[in-house]
Amino acid sequence: MASGGSAIRGSRVGSGPMGEQDRGYHAERISVSYWDAAGNETVRFFAANLPEDEIPVTIDSPQTGLPAGRDKDNPPQLAKSEPYKTHLAYVKERRSDDEAAQLLDEALEQLRSRRGGASV
Fold it and tell me: In this structure, are 33 and 65 located in the same domain?
């Protein structure tokens, strides 16, 4: 069994002729540097004709997840985040202890009536 030669062996699917230099039109672009509070620099590229007010003032740093701004000497600080609250914590904010006791009594009464048990 002889192996047949392939004209496209080693070339990418969809690639043009070997040695092709022009791969399409490249738009003019500008680079914008952002710094986070840890001193990491992140560079983003934008179209050169993009208005200044459409370029973001802050981004999330991919290295640290901290906010990063365009001023190297004064990077944005992480906003104070609230600790995670459980569902129970939110319920306790909405209900007083008396309301909670009343709701618990009503729920227990319904449960007992469904099960056919004696109510207290």
Answer: yes
